[in-house]
């Protein structure tokens, strides 16, 4: 599945979705990853189960300039499992598109990279940061940071089969005794990697504590390829602060974009409350429309609608009630949509 823009549109009553909208980049920003020009410094981070095609396209429409797929297991891709095919799905309008691979076998990863390039990936990204035990116990994700020599061989093999830019996403290290982001970044650049994203927490920290941005600055100083910083950014202003403090040229926002994809619109914060509210409503309507267009099957599409509408309740006094009603009483996307709007308008 690579997205089908011909799917019949499901009409939902209420707010008019924000369509045909795109941000004009009024400021000058240039970042090149290999031969690709990236237009905005702030972009959506990959988040498994959440940043699928509809959310990525929405973030792009709000101003995120580079889409990154969720982690795609190389073995699953080679076996063409239904689950992996769904995860690897993208919309043809997602441009440029980085597709992220998860694995630890050089041959499989390079074969998987070739498949993704053929399908239209503009960048191949290797996940070297996933901290989940079920992933690291198989030597994948952040476990790749533990054996720098073995990982160098893996990157060398992928580089040989990859015509598009190759990037990696790393953590600060395995744990506080093994903070080797700089060593891993330098090794990766010497193997031909074109850009690096750093989420500076260690694998053992998972998401706890503050993200130590200093490590991003250390990587920036150590390599001569573009470095993207990541970790705890929840507004455009904070992204600019991260760039100023660390010297990174771009920022990825993950959890801070859930329920507020307008974070990618640099002008949003300068608008008055009425304009912000109508932009938020049009953006949420567009999100639901894109989910139903891309995932017309009710069980999965409905779950996605409920999950994302739940994030949009952030900050509402009745958020808990709204989420409970969404998950216990709504059997169709239309019910979920009208429930959400009822709570939103009463808030
Ligand atoms: C639910 C969830 C799923 C994630 N999935 C991925 C993934 O598939 N690939 C990846 O590189 N990082 C993944 N991450 C990590 C994020 O990309 C990001 O590095 C992390 O959330 C820190 O950034 P933030 O503070 O802006 O959220 C995930 C994070 C979350 C919360």
Rg for CA atoms: 20 Å
By secondary-structure content and strand pairing, the structural class works out as alpha/beta
The residue ranges in which pLDDT falls below 50 over 5 or more consecutive positions are 1-8
Gross morphology? globular
- How big a fraction of the residues is strand? 5-15%
> What is the assigned CATH homologous superfamily of the largest domain?
Aldolase class I
The CATH class of the largest domain, by name, is Alpha Beta
Quaternary:
single chain
Number of strands: 10
Verbal overview:
With 347 residues, this protein is of the alpha/beta class. It has two domains: 31-258, Aldolase class I (TIM Barrel, Alpha-Beta Barrel); 272-346. Helices cover 42% and strands 15% of the residues. The protein has 13 helices and ten strands. The strands form two sheets. An eight-stranded parallel sheet has the order 3-10-9-8-7-6-5-4. A two-stranded antiparallel ribbon has the order 1-2. Helix 7 links the parallel strand 7 and strand 8. Helix 7 (181-190) packs parallel to helix 8. The two termini are 39 Å apart. Mean pLDDT is 93; it is low at 1-8. It binds flavin mononucleotide. Flavin mononucleotide binds at residues 45-48, 50, 70-71, 100, 127, 129-130, 169, 199, 230-233, 253-256.
In short:
This protein is an alpha/beta fold and about 350 residues long. It has two domains: about 30-260, Alpha-Beta Barrel (TIM Barrel), CATH 3.20.20.70; about 270-345.
């Amino acid at each position: 599945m690579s997205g089908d823009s011909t799917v019949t549109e499901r009409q939902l009553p209420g707010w008019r979705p924000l369509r045909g909208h795109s941000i004009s980049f009024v400021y000058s920003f240039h970042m090149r990853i290999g031969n690709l020009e990236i237009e905005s410094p702030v972009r959506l981070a990959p988040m498994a189960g959440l940043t699928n095609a509809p959310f990525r396209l929405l973030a792009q429409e709000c101003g995120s300039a580079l889409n990154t797929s969720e982690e795609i297991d190389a073995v699953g891709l080679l076996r063409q499992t239904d689950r992996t095919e769904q995860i690897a799905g993208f919309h043809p309008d997602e441009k440029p598109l980085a597709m992220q691979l998860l694995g630890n076998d050089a041959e499989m990863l390079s074969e998987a990279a070739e498949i993704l390039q053929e399908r239209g990936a503009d960048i191949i990204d290797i996940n070297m940061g996933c901290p989940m035990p079920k992933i690291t116990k198989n030597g994948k994700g952040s476990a790749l940071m533990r054996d720098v020599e073995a990982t160098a061989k893996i990157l060398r093999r992928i580089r040989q089969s990859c015509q598009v830019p190759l990037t990696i996403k790393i953590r600060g290290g395995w744990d506080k005794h093994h903070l080797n982001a700089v060593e891993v970044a330098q090794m990766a650049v010497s193997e031909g990697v074109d850009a690096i994203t750093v989420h500076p927490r260690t694998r053992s920290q998972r998401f706890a504590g503050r993200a130590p941005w200093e490590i991003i600055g250390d990587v920036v100083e150590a390599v001569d390829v573009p470095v993207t910083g990541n970790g705890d950014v929840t507004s455009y202003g904070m992204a600019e602060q991260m760039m100023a403090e660390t010297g990174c040229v771009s920022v990825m926002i993950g959890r801070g974009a859930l329920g507020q994809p307008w974070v990618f619109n640099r002008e949003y914060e300068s608008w008055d409350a009425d304009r912000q509210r109508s932009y938020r409503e049009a953006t949420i309507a567009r999100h639901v429309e894109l989910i139903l267009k891309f995932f017309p099957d009710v069980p999965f599409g409905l779950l996605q609608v409920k999950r994302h509408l739940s994030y949009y309740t952030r900050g509402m006094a009745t958020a808990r009630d709204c989420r409970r009603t969404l998950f216990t009483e709504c059997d169709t996307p239309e019910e979920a949509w009208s429930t959400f709007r009822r709570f939103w308008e009463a808030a």
